[in-house]
């Protein structure tokens, strides 16, 4: 129970920090960026890392190729169990990027995805906790 409470508190603190740092976006942009982030999460949940990495910016691809991306993410998702749903999402604009935070529920664990998207709708950053 302590672990669950600790995780929830960590998520809430992280979301609060992100909210305090970025600027709000309009509803249309929020919906568009959330859909893009959810598309990436769906692709990796389906094991389609090739298609997901097609959305990476050139700069992101220089740092992380498809094979390394899969090697880093697949074990985390396996440990989480089957995907169930996205519980929450937030979108903030920070510098020239939209930072989308998705809280995803899996059978065994919740995962928090933080995905940075540039104005051309390319992925500039991807983090899973």
Tell me what you see in this structure.
- With 129 residues, the protein is α+β, with helices and mostly antiparallel strands.
- 50% of the residues lie in helices and 29% in strands.
- It has helices at residues 2-21, 27-45, 49-53, 58-63, 66-80; strands spanning 83-94, 97-106, 110-118, 123-128.
- β3 and β4 (123-128) form a beta hairpin.
- It is globular, with a radius of gyration of 14 Å.
- The model is unreliable at 1-20 (pLDDT under 50).
List the helices and strands and how they pair.
Blueprint (H helix, E strand, L loop, with lengths): L1 H20 L5 H19 L3 H5 L4 H6 L2 H15 L2 E12 L2 E10 L3 E9 L4 E6 L1
Question: What key phrases describe this protein's structure?
Answer:
single chain, 129 residues, alpha+beta, 4-stranded antiparallel sheet, 4 strands, 50% helix, disordered N terminus
């Amino acid at each position: 129970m302590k672990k669950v409470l600790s995780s929830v508190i960590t998520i809430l603190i992280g979301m609060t920090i992100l909210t305090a740092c970025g600027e709000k976006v309009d509803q249309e942009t929020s919906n568009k960026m959330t859909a893009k982030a959810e598309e990436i999460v769906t692709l990796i949940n389906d094991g389609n890392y090739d298609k997901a990495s097609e959305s990476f910016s050139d700069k992101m691809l220089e740092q992380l190729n498809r094979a390394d991306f899969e090697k880093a993410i697949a074990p985390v998702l396996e440990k989480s169990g089957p995907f169930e749903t996205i519980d929450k999402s937030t979108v903030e604009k920070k510098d020239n990027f939209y930072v989308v935070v998705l809280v995803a529920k899996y059978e065994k664990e919740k995962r928090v995805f933080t995905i940075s998207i540039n104005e051309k709708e390319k992925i500039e950053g991807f983090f899973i906790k």
